[in-house]
Amino acid sequence: MFKAIHHIAIICSDYQVSKDFYVNKLGLEIIREVYRDNRNSYKLDLAIGSTYVIELFSFPNAPVRPSYPEAQGLRHLAFAVDDIEQVVENLKERSIEVESIRVDPNTNKKFTFFSDPDGLPLEIYEK
């Protein structure tokens, strides 16, 4: 069912400080940096070697929180899958609520979210 971790998304409280930490202190490579004008937010895609690892986000006035979207800290954990529809059905058969499947406007890939028992957002991302 799950093939691998696709990426880890982190919303930071200070974008420049976090960018410096991940890039200059930890040595992650910048794949792409995008400023999303409509959200007043940056998205920085980082890798270790050739492996895509982290999406670093900034959002103005992001609240501190343990698990819901658009706040400081871990945003979600994403699992790469071959067939998203099959995986969604499998999760639903196990009484796990799953959001509707969406398509990423930048990659045209299908994705959706569900939560762990503590409310941590988990993503399924079709390879």
UniProtKB/TrEMBL annotation:
Q: Which UniProt keywords apply?
A: Metal-binding
Record keywords: Ubl conjugation included? no
| GO function term, MF aspect, one | metal ion binding
**By its UniProt entry, which Gene3D superfamilies does this protein fall under?**
2,3-Dihydroxybiphenyl 1,2-Dioxygenase, domain 1
| Pfam hit, one | Glyoxalase
Q: Which residues form the VOC domain?
A: 4-127
| UniProt-listed PANTHER family | FOSFOMYCIN RESISTANCE PROTEIN FOSX, LYASE, PUTATIVE-RELATED-RELATED
The name under which this protein is listed is VOC family protein
Q: Native species of this protein?
A: Paraliobacillus quinghaiensis
